[in-house]
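Reagents: none. Just compute today. Isoaspartyl peptidase/L-asparaginase.
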Amino acid sequence: MLPVVVVHGGAGHIPKERSDLSTSGVCSAVRSAYALLQGGGSSLDAVVEAVLLLENNPSFNAGCGSVLNMKGEVEMDALVMDGKTLSSGAVSAVRNVANPIQLARLVMDKTSHAFLTAEGASQFARSMGVPEVPQESLITEYSRMRWKKKLAPDANPVECQMGKMGTVGAVAVDTDGNVACATSTGGMLNKMEGRVGDTPCIGSGGYADNMSGAVSTTGHGEAIMKVTLARHILFHVEQGQSAEAASDLGLAHMKSRVGGLGGVVTVDPQGNWAARFSSRQMAWAAAQKDTLHYGLYTGEHFTQIIEDHRA
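Predicted 3D structure written out:
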């Protein structure tokens, strides 16, 4: 069953003309992360690699392609967690970094802290030699167009959040049975400056513990935080529920209790996995036993054989 990696590209409604880009993006991220795992890499390296590739893909709301806040600027959040030691690293409201997930990993590896924010995170990035990038390099035409549209006085708020390519995330189990999660986002379209959602918050945007499994979430950040969705799902796993049943129970609880929609990718230490969502769509992909699994709509599940290039 091991290794396994599962990736999501965000829950919500993805316009038809962009859905193919989302699907191919999550599939290629999963392939890279799986190759790393097959080569003996750790689950931690694999989830960071998957999320890094999605941050670099302008089709997703993370890194390059992040949505803009009220002032038309990018502020990004990210979290990584190691299920073996429960070590974690997170950053929030970072602006001039191409890959917030790498910065979160550095917070975990190079400081005694778990979470750095805004200017402090930027200073830390500089001290670690992380190159600063101009805001413009993170802003796509699509993001700017949607920002302008949302600012229009006659804007329909539902329609504006429709094309919201969500948060990206990954969970994995390596051949040693260690689990890890990583999540990264540009946040919510036209959010207030300084708004931080669920993504960098341990237990909400993600959680990883070798005793139970790993989860990465996506959806309405404020709702996810209210129910600490990632940790909530792992409580169900600890009670004996399968990864899939636990994911469904967590999402159902969030919907009934606070009216929130979202999606998750979940793994347990044995390699059982799930990609579940209560929103209309969620681009997801998984790799296990040399097979690629992927889907976008509820009930959709395609498979493909992964060729082994390690000759």
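The first helix runs from residue 16 to 38.
Action item: order primers for follow-up constructs.
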